[in-house]
Design goal:
By secondary structure, this protein is α+β, with helices and mostly antiparallel strands. The chain has three domains: 2-73 and 89-232 and 239-254, no CATH class; 349-496, Band 7 domain (Tetrahydropterin Synthase, Chain A); 505-625, no CATH class. It is built from 17 helices and twelve strands. The strands form four sheets. Strands 6, 9, 10, 11 and 12 form a five-stranded antiparallel sheet that branches. The chain is elongated.
Amino acid sequence: MERHVQRTLVLNLVVLLAGGLACFWAAGHTGSLAAQTARWYFLVAFVISLVSWFQQRLHDREKLEKLEFDELTRTKGASSLFSADDAGSFPARQSRQQFEKWFVPIFALLLVIGQGVIVWKQWTSIGSAPKVLEQSLVGMGLYAAVFLALTIFGLYASRLAQHGNHGLLRPAAGHVLLNAYICGAVAAAIFGVEIGKFKSLDFYLARLLVVVLGLITVEMALTLVFEIYRPRVRGKGSQHALYESRIVGLLSRPDSLFTTAAHALDYQFGFKVSDTWFYQFLQRSITWIILLQAGLLWLSTTVVFIDPGEQGLREVFGKSVGNVLGPGAHFKLPWPLSEIYKYRTSQVQDFVVGVVPNDPLPTDEYTTEVVQWSVSHNKEEYNMLVASRELSGNQSTNEEAAVPVNLLTVSIPVQYEIKDLKKWAYNHSDPDKLLRDIAYHEVVRYLVNVDLLEIMGEGRARAIAELKSRMQAAADSPEIDLGVNILFVGLQDTHPPREVAKAFQDVVGALQVKETKILDGEAKRAFTLTMATADASNLVTQAYAYEARTTNSAAGQADQFEQQLLAYRKAPDIYDERAYLDMFSRSATNARIYLMAITNSDQVIQYDLEDKVRRDIQDIMLNSKR
């Protein structure tokens, strides 16, 4: 039996080596991420199987040595020559003990460290996006063949280890079966990517395999820790090798879970639960129950529910059948014979041209961030060419003349809805990407024919209407015919590139200062002209007033002189005296009077008899001074 186990272990090594080499080659030529992860499983399985084979050889040598010793003890005098307690008499047992005491723990520790490095390296090398596979059919066929071969040898080795109670055969058998299942999963993932239904299946399978290997590594590390602190009985070792993983055993032989559950139930309830008819029925029929559940799950794919606001298209064997399906329940053939693809036809969909926007904030958050030209507020911004009407430099020579274009960063949200589902789904392989390309094409064409300052200023509304019209016309053209309705085109965050935003702001500031000074000059000009007009009008008005005053005054004086001459002729003496007194009374009305309270001096009375200057003469004197 020991030789049979040895042959099985050697056969497992050969099968793992051949399958591992084949999978290493396939992983390099197909580019499959799952295949690149699976080859590390082959490496771990081969190393564990090699150590398991060597340890089994030590056990076999020890058993052979024990048989030889038992045979010698039957002869006379054997007891005097050999002693069962003499360690030197059993070199094979001593070799096995030293191997299990030193080499196995060190190997298990190195295995944990190596698997941890593999997990970290493989997780970082996978990346965050699926890769395009090459030579998919060859890789799928090769992995399917390895799956079949490893399954046959693995099942045989697993049953031999289970029924023959060969503990050292379990780790190798478990890893052979686990690698078989992994090869089958990789073949299925490549098939899913090849038919185009599950393009990310290979990527997610690679991530899952890394996670499983990480769990195995953590479990083996905990096993090492428990081995250090477990109680030891002389002559009795552990029933499991340190490098044997329970997770691998469970994944390779799921039926062992029933045995473990049976022992747990028997211990918990105190009687043989595993001998009851229900448990025996469940154990015998579990495969059929699982198949029945899988069948029901498969039959459930015959019913598809289309939500409100959506429409669906039914395909049978990849060809469109029937009309567009509305909201509600619809029946079809089971997967993969038939499929119903759902589309959001009534929901407004959108994308942004010119930038890659940041992730949207949660609905319960609000930001009042100020958008500045010199600060990036998107994940990525593209610079668009825009025309310029102004040329700088010496325009007489072409070498010194500036190129009549500028760079502009724009953010143009586009909203649309699907108006003809069949055209949208079947006229092109990727209509959403095509619509984005159309939008970018029309934006680029429009910007190279419009002035920079115009698109940033008064031409925004005109640009929005023109871009919407162009996008709709391109989408409805006979060559494209997308079956889409452009609802809205916006124009926001229009500014120069972030690198030159400050320089542009300085230029705009200088232009604003220039315009301010021009407006100040215009204001001063208007004020000066207005004041000059007012002064001229005032002078003319004053001249007319002076003319009227002078004329009327002269006429009044002439009339007064005639009356005075008439009175003088009647009584000359009386007229002179009265004129003198009248003049004196008028002159003394507001005159300053000095009273001298001195008795021993003569009183001096002063009279201010200055003639009052006439008003017309006074005005002439004032004007001459000005």
